[in-house]
Amino acid sequence: MYLISSCLVGINCRYNGGSTCHPKLEELLKKGVAIAVCPEILGDLPIPRDPCEIQANKGQLSVCTKNGCDYTKAFRQGAQKTLDICQTTGVTQAILQSRSPSCGSGQIYDGSFTGKLIDGNGLTAELLQNNGVSVYTETEWLKQFED
């Protein structure tokens, strides 16, 4: 069973109110082998919302907007609810939106809102990985279908 970021299967829940749709990921939902979840919506964040990035403040990680509004609590709440869903449903693999402060795996934006990427994980991806869920970005997972 897979968990997939809702925005990757056409659900308009991204920060800007949009989504992307990957037919191969949609197929997993239609076959009943995946569930779609948006950790940011589970954290009660609105659609649309200001873009957020992870920032380090005095050794502590926070998730903030460019103008300094701190949404760390909402992002942590969404991450925990996502983990709870995985544990309740037996999900062992997650396909998550790359670079996101929630779902990014391997690389995330650096917190400067300049588009620069750094090594790291979003809060949900990190929590899932720390609890035994294998996490892939959509790009990593879809590579298996390239010729």
TrEMBL record:
A matching Pfam family: 2-thiour_desulf
Domain of life, per lineage: Bacteria
Picking any one GO molecular function of the record gives: ligase activity
Tell me if Ligase is a UniProt keyword of this record: yes
InterPro entries per UniProt? 2-thiour_desulf
Alphabetical keyword list: Ligase
Descriptive protein name: D-alanine-D-alanine ligase
Phylogenetic lineage: Bacteria, Pseudomonadati, Bacteroidota, Bacteroidia, Marinilabiliales
